[in-house]
Each structure stands twice: as C-alpha cells, then as structure tokens.
TrEMBL record:
InterPro entries: Alkaline_phosphatase_core_sf (IPR017850), DeoB (IPR010045), Metalloenzyme (IPR006124), Phosphopentomutase_DeoB_cap_sf (IPR024052). One of its GO terms (cellular component) is cytosol. Its main location: cytoplasm. It catalyses: 2-deoxy-alpha-D-ribose 1-phosphate = 2-deoxy-D-ribose 5-phosphate; alpha-D-ribose 1-phosphate = D-ribose 5-phosphate. It comes from Sporolactobacillus inulinus CASD. Coiled coil: none annotated. It comes from the Bacteria. Keywords: Cytoplasm, Isomerase, Manganese, Metal-binding. This is Phosphopentomutase. Binds 2 manganese ions. GO terms for biological process: 2-deoxyribose 1-phosphate catabolic process; 5-phosphoribose 1-diphosphate biosynthetic process; metabolic compound salvage; nucleotide metabolic process. Isomerase that catalyzes the conversion of deoxy-ribose 1-phosphate (dRib-1-P) and ribose 1-phosphate (Rib-1-P) to deoxy-ribose 5-phosphate (dRib-5-P) and ribose 5-phosphate (Rib-5-P), respectively.
Length: 397
C-alpha cells in the first residue's frame, strides 16, 4: 500500500504552551498559561490562520483572547501532555520522536562543582566567572564589559539542565568558544553531571547597553541513547530535513539535511521554500525566538507580536500544501511570559493537524505523550515504530 502522505511537516513553536499540565504543581508551575497570558497582554491576538485551523477550539472552556472558536475549523485539534521528566527543548523534541527522557537530567541551582570549573579553566586558560543561574541577557549586561577587559568565561545555568557559556565574539573567537563548549560537553555526559545541554552563547556590542546575542549560538545536546523516528526514517531512505535548532537537538542523528536559522522569520522562509522542493519524508522546523527572545525575557507583548508575525508567514505557506502533505503545528514546552521567574513552564502543548485532503476534521482525544506525533509519522511511512507513542493516522480523514 502506498503511504497516505508523501511529506509530513512538523513546525515546533518553541515554548508556545497552552496552559498548565496536570503535573504542573510538581514543577511549581501552577497557573502558567503561555498562550492565554500572551493573548491577554495583547488585548487579543490577531492570528487569523491559527484561528481558522482551530487554535481556540483546543480549549473551548477558556478560549484564547482574540481567537474565536470556529464552528468549522480546518484542522484536527487537541493538546498533548509530556511524559518526560524535564520541561526543556531536548525532552520535548526527543519525546516527539518517540524517545521520552524519563530519568531527570541534573540541574545545578548552586552552580557547577569546583572540579568541573577547574577543568574548564585549565583547558581554556581562562577564568570562570559567575557559575550560577542567570538570565542570559542580564548576565552579559552585568559582566560583558568586564569580560571585554579580562577575557574570563561567563558560565551560567538555569532551571533547566544546561551549562551556558556567554562570550563576546571579539574577545573569545567563535572557534575557541565552540572548542571550550565541546570540551565541557564531553565532561558532562555521564554521572555525576548527566547534563542535557552545553550552550555556546556568543554576543557582540561595545557596552552594557548595546550588547546583543548573535545567531551563532550552538546547542550541544546529549546524543540520543536510542534510535528515534528520525533514524527510522533515515534508515529507510526517506528524507529528514531539519530547520533551526533541530539538528543540534538530535546531535545530527537521523537527519539528512539541516539548516541553522537566524530568526523565526528566516525559519519560516526556509520551511516555505522546502514546500517547493519535491522531497519524500519529514520536514521538522523549530522556531526558537518565542522562547529565547521573548519567553525567558518575560516579554508578553513581544511574544504576542512574534505569534502574529508567524501567523502571517503561515498564511503564505498554507496555500502551497498539496493533498499529500500533512502539517502538524505544536510546541515543545511552555515559557509563560506572564509568569514569575525566567524558566520554562510545565504545560500542555497545542496540536493542530492539517492537510488540504481532509474531508472531515474535529477534536482529537488529548494525547498522553508527545510521542504520538512520531508514532504517526512512522506509521505513515511504514517504518519501524517507536517504543512509546500511539499513531493517530487512522483518525485522519
Ligand atoms: O536566559 P537564556 O540565556 O536565554 O537561557 C535560557 O535558554 C536555555 C535554553 O532554552 C534555558 O535553559 C534558559 O537558561
Ligand atoms: Mn524549547
Ligand atoms: Mn528556553
């Protein structure tokens, strides 16, 4: 039998959660609601395309402000619960591809142990500064000018399992920063660290007021310990095309071609261009600005404007979809810009599933794991099924 869809496209709106998950209390995240609070801060979101697909239909009991419930939405709609222990990008994306991260990765709320810091210092020949949780933009405001004089490494972490190194591009050249990060990555794979990501955070500018982070960020994730749906597709000779930080998140495993992007806009342009390409398999796009530029910065209005800009580009992409295309729009976790702190929030994520071939659409049962997404992709292409996840392919009519 030939497969139902020739191309499946997943767009991850990084951190665009749709309300507290049932286990939010375990994360001290009760009351978080990324989409809801963003829409309130905007006095209503203007997202006609997401609206038409059925975004507010996902939670009719609490529609998103400015997004009317549709009598005839164009997409199947539901929300998904995460089973991974963490609420970071790696957990969310690996789970989508059938590999939940059930053992919690370690976090370092008091900074990294001396032993690790000393190794980084002797490898790099540079002193480590800060070594505590911080907001990335605040920490370069605070220490960037000092770093320009001393060449020290600004090391910081967050509520996630991350070690981040901020470095001025003209003081610590990119190549050098990447080498230091690779070294730190090697040291933190196994216990006692078992760290999700080491992230290179380069920036430029002349003074605290003008520092700006650049698109040369690199995420060094753990290598997935088992094959994911990306591998199953790739092993079967199908195309696996990755836009944005997807390639980094999977350490390139199972990815045929990948492109880094500089912004959401750039990511959507790349995605839209892929629609003109005659490929066979999966396109997987991550739009990280929602998270990195607005969620962690707790900027709900800018977050909302980014959603509106995405929606405009979505409007340009939708008419390019053919009958044998399937589009799934979702998120990897929440990051409520109206919430306390600066960390991700434990939320349900929205799921909108659209194809021009659908004759009937409507509500889906809530998915108990993001892995249902990967299972559906694997099912469609008749490749090996992931151990976790249930396909909803047969629901799509
Ligand atoms: O504050 P910035 O540097 O954006 O860092 C944030 O980005 C990391 C990855 O999303 C999070 O763990 C958080 O620390
Ligand atoms: Mn993320
Ligand atoms: Mn984040």
């Amino acid at each position: 039998m030939t497969e139902r869809f020739k191309r499946i496209h997943i767009i991850v709106l990084d951190s665009v959660g749709i309300g507290e998950a049932t286990d939010a209390a375990n994360y001290n995240d009760e009351g978080c609601d990324t989409l809801g609070h963003t829409a309130e801060a905007m006095n209503g979101l203007n997202v006609p395309n997401l609206t038409k697909l059925g975004l507010s239909n996902i939670r009719p009991e609490r529609p998103i402000q400015g997004v009317p419930i549709q009598e005839k939405p164009l997409a199947y709609y539901t929300k998904m619960h995460e089973v991974s222990a963490g609420k970071d990008s790696m957990d969310g994306h690996w789970e989508m591809m059938g590999l939940p991260v059930r053992t919690p990765l370690h976090t370092f709320p008091n900074g990294f142990p001396d032993e690790l810091v000393q190794k980084i210092e002797s490898f790099s020949g540079r002193k480590v500064l800060w070594n505590k949780p911080a907001s990335g933009t605040e920490i370069i405001k605070k220490f960037g000018e000092r770093q320009m004089k001393t060449g020290e490494l600004i090391v910081y972490t967050s509520g996630d399992s991350v070690l981040q190194i901020a470095a001025h591009e003209h003081v610590i050249p990119l190549e050098e920063l990447y080498k230091i990060c690779e070294y730190a990555r090697k040291l933190t794979i196994d216990e006692p660290y078992h760290l999700g990501r080491v992230i290179a955070r380069p920036y430029v500018g002349n003074s605290a007021d003008t520092f700006e982070r650049t698109a040369n960020r690199r995420d060094l994730t753990l290598v997935p310990p088992e094959k994911t749906v990306l591998n199953f597709l790739n092993d079967a000779g199908l195309d696996t095309l990755a836009v944005g930080k997807i390639n980094d998140i999977f350490s390139g495993k199972g990815i045929k071609e990948g492109w880094h992007t500089v912004s959401n806009e750039d990511g959507m342009e790349r995605f839209t261009a892929l629609l003109d390409r005659d490929f066979h398999g999966l396109s997987f796009t991550n739009l990280v600005d929602f998270d990195a530029k607005y969620g962690h910065r707790r900027e709900p209005v800018l977050f909302g404007k980014a959603l509106e800009a995405f929606d405009r580009q979505l409007g340009e992409a939708l008419p390019k979809l053919k009958k044998d295309d399937l589009l799934m729009i979702t998120a990897d976790h929440g990051n409520d810009p109206g919430f306390r702190g600066t960390d991700h929030t434990r939320e349900f994520v929205p799921l909108l599933v659209y194809s021009p071939s659908f004759s009937s659409v409507g509500a889906f049962p809530v998915r108990q794991t993001f892995a249902d997404l990967g299972a559906t992709v694997a099912d469609n292409f008749a490749v090996e099924m992931p151990k976790t996840g249930e396909s909803f392919l047969s629901f799509l009519n």
